[in-house]
Amino acid sequence: MRIDDGARSLLADLHCHSNASDGGLSPAAVVTRAAQQGVGVLALTDHDTLAGLPQAQAATAAEGIHLISGVELSCLWHGQTIHVVGLDFDPQDVGFQRVLDGQSQVRHERAGTIDERLQKQGLPSVLGEARALAAGVPGRPHFAQALVDTGVVAGTRQAFQRYLGTGKVGDVATCWPELATVVKWIREAGGIAILAHPRRYRLTNNKLRKLVDAFHEAGGQALEVLSAGHSRQDSGYLTRLCMDNGLWASGGSDFHWPGRPWSELGRLPVLPDGPEPVWRHFRETTRGRLQGE
């Protein structure tokens, strides 16, 4: 996906993760890898935390990348967990920092519950190892790696198949805020609220349209029409949903770990014609920075 204002053209990736949440690389290493892939504009969107932003910001100066403030927030819609990406907000907003602290606490509690459930299955406690692997709150990928490192399973795939995948003992449901609440938080911090990877929720077209309608009614502004795992047909349908609801189009690799070519940083097609690109609605100061002013 490219940001092109007629004067400059920059490869952009507006959704990725570091080990400040459930990624495998440090924030600085994510920035370095993005630069190696030719990315010029990057948003680090770790789950429910801004812990990786200072390190990422420091790394962008050396790599010549423009960093956009980003986060991926968890919420509920009709009882289903949904993710909303926030972009170009004020990371110093006190109210936003406060609610993110609450989200982080929920994730800490969830990590403790995962470890307790694994122990009830006769496994050793790996919470300490999972925390050591994460720069922030450990998620299921960190628990999977910890189970590998302690010799419980042969690989992370096996860890998910036996203990951590959907419906398994380590798949812990969490009481997240409602969709409208999360959208409100992002917008009050001056940011843009984007429905993340809409096809990943395995909804029928009818239910997905209802989700997008609810998102729009709540004040949501954009959809990720480009994301790892989205087919060309998926992107076409999401583009139509953007047009039907007057939403902007965004995209990102959702990069987590090296070695997954389908979710490599910067590997996205061009945004489809039709909806306004989300970057055109960044704050004036951000757009000026991207244009080299």
Structure description:
With 293 residues, the protein is α/β, with parallel strands linked by helices. The protein has two domains: 2-99 and 178-290, Alpha-Beta Barrel (TIM Barrel), CATH 3.20.20; 109-164, DNA polymerase, domain 1 (Orthogonal Bundle), CATH 1.10.150.650. Helix content is 40%, strand content 15%. It contains ten helices and nine strands. It has helices at 27-36, 53-63, 94-120, 127-133, 140-149, 156-164, 179-188, 205-217, 232-245, 284-290, and strands spanning 2-4, 9-13, 41-43, 66-68, 70-77, 80-87, 192-195, 222-227, 248-252. It has a five-stranded mixed beta sheet with strand order 5-6-7-8-9. The longest helix has 27 residues, at 94-120. The protein is globular and about 55 Å long.
Would you kindly provide a brief summary of this structure?
This protein has 293 residues and is an alpha/beta fold. The protein folds into two domains: 2-99 and 178-290, Metal-dependent hydrolases (TIM Barrel, Alpha-Beta Barrel), CATH 3.20.20.140; 109-164, DNA polymerase, domain 1, CATH 1.10.150.650.
H/E topology pattern: EEHEHEEEHHHHHEHEHEH
Distance between the termini: 22 Å
Strand order of the largest sheet: 5-6-7-8-9
Rg over CA atoms: 19 Å
Structural category: alpha/beta
CATH architecture of the largest domain: Alpha-Beta Barrel
Query: Roughly what fraction of the amino acids lie in strands?
Result: 15-25%
Largest sheet: 5 strands, mixed
Low-confidence stretches: none
Quickly name the level 1 CATH class of the largest domain: Alpha Beta
CATH superfamily of the largest domain: Metal-dependent hydrolases
Number of strands: 9
Shape: globular
CATH topology of the largest domain: the name is TIM Barrel
Total number of helices: 10
- Overall pLDDT level: 91
How much helical structure, as a percent, in the residues?
Answer: 40-55%
Total discrete domains: 2
